[in-house]
Amino acid sequence: MASYFHTTGTTPKLAPHNHRNEVAMILAYVINLGETDSTLCGLPLFHVDGMIVTGLAPFFAGAEILIATPHDYRSTRLVQNFCKVIEHYRVSFFSGVPTIYAGLLQVLIDDRNGQFVETHVQALSTDLEGQLNACLAGFSIKYELMAESQLP
Q1: How distant is the alpha carbon of residue 20 from its chain centre?
Q2: Where are the domains of the chain?
Q3: For 3-150, which CATH class?
Q4: For residue 145, what are the β-bridge partners?
């Protein structure tokens, strides 16, 4: 086994990841990343998203990785200054789970200025996706939305 990640839901458990599984997940994300990308890692590295999607995949692609804060998305300063952070560090990719995006919506509504490029949505309500598209309109950015219920 390469790693174990805690799952969420009604019956939390440990999900084993073998090396082949982790390499396959990294390769699935690295297709859309390159050396000119800058990734915001806003989830903790003990979370499968923080470790694979915004950690190892951009590292493998040669992209820059910005690790948010010790408090990741729970940092009120990060959330309040989210658009400024994206603009300052020229973040081209960030990722999270629906509850995080719902929390960011208020900030994004108040501070939008860029061009939306790409969305990958897994088990996400159309309403939240539409609101995110509207708020990120104008940012040259890709974002990944993962449903908490679909995490391994």
Answers
A1: 22
A2: 3-150
A3: alpha beta
A4: 96, 121
